[in-house]
Write a structure and sequence with these properties.
Radius of gyration: 24 Å
Number of strands: 5
Strand order of the largest sheet: 1-2-3
Helix content: 25-40%
Strand content: 5-15%
Number of domains: 3
Order of helices and strands: HHHHHHEEEHEEHH
Largest sheet: 3 strands, antiparallel
Structural class: alpha+beta
Shape: flat
Length: 255
């Protein structure tokens, strides 16, 4: 609770709904409902948004009731039936974390299914309904220009059919999306980008995270299509860094 209390900005909303966010104990007499009634808190349920403040108060309040002295009374934690990993406690995460090299060796069809679904990025469940009826939404549009117009801004957009249109408004929120594309890496020369062999828009990599272009390596999210979802996260550095170091050292030795 200390980390949530000290490090989160005031009013920050949790991504999860109340049913999996509130930390109150589930023993008789110590449910979140009971705690909220005792302290006069409004009970959050259903599709209510959860601010960080009641989340912290619920956790600390329930902890104070259940273990007021800070000790668990000699209780033994139940055994874990699934292995612990940096990405969570599950057999699926264990396979992703421990077997990235094997992940690369399976067929593209098999590899891309978990790449798209396992630990994929997603927004909060409450984000989509928020602008409804309040602000117009323009999905699948690419912003190609913007300029000041009176007290607002004029935005020029292009869709997938390469048709352009302009919109004048007071405020714009641009959601960049999370689709990986070498074209978005504008510091790479265009002719170099066209030489990249790709799999599902991502560069195809060998065991040393090297692309089809000599001396060009890729880690992070673009490498996840080859080595698995682990590479989307900072903890994937432990997998990618040694392989990148060995590959570059070997190339330097050959040079």
């Amino acid at each position: 609770m200390v980390a949530w209390d000290r490090n989160m900005s005031e009013g920050k909303l949790l991504k999860s709904p109340p049913s999996v966010s509130m930390l109150g104990g589930r023993r008789r007499g110590f449910t979140p409902d009971v705690y909220c009634r005792q302290v006069g808190e409004s009970r959050l349920s259903g599709h209510d948004q959860v601010p960080v403040e009641p989340f912290v108060r619920d956790g600390r309040g329930s902890g104070g009731q259940l273990v007021s002295d800070g000790f668990g009374g000699g209780s033994t934690p139940p055994p874990h039936r699934q292995p612990d990993t940096p990405l969570g406690r599950s057999w699926g995460s264990y396979g992703v974390v421990r077997h990235g090299t094997a992940f690369r060796c399976v067929s593209q069809q098999v590899r891309l299914k978990p790449w798209r679904r396992v630990l994929a990025p997603f927004g909060s469940w409450w984000l989509t309904p928020c602008p409804g009826g309040v602000a117009p939404m323009s999905p699948r549009q690419h912003v190609i220009g913007a300029r000041a117009e009176g007290n607002g801004v004029e935005v020029t957009m292009r869709n997938g059919q390469r048709r352009t249109r302009s919109l004048c408004t007071g405020h714009v929120v641009v959601a960049t999306g999370r689709r990986v594309s070498p074209e978005a890496v504008d510091f790479l020369a265009p002719d170099l980008r066209t030489r990249l062999v790709r799999r599902a828009r991502c560069p195809h990599l060998d065991a040393g995270v090297r692309s089809s272009v000599p001396s060009l390596y890729s880690t992070g999210t673009p490498a996840a299509a080859t080595f698995g979802p682990l590479l989307r996260f900072t903890c994937g550095t432990g997998f990618a860094a040694p392989r990148l170091a060995v590959a570059t050292a070997q190339r330097e030795g050959q040079g």
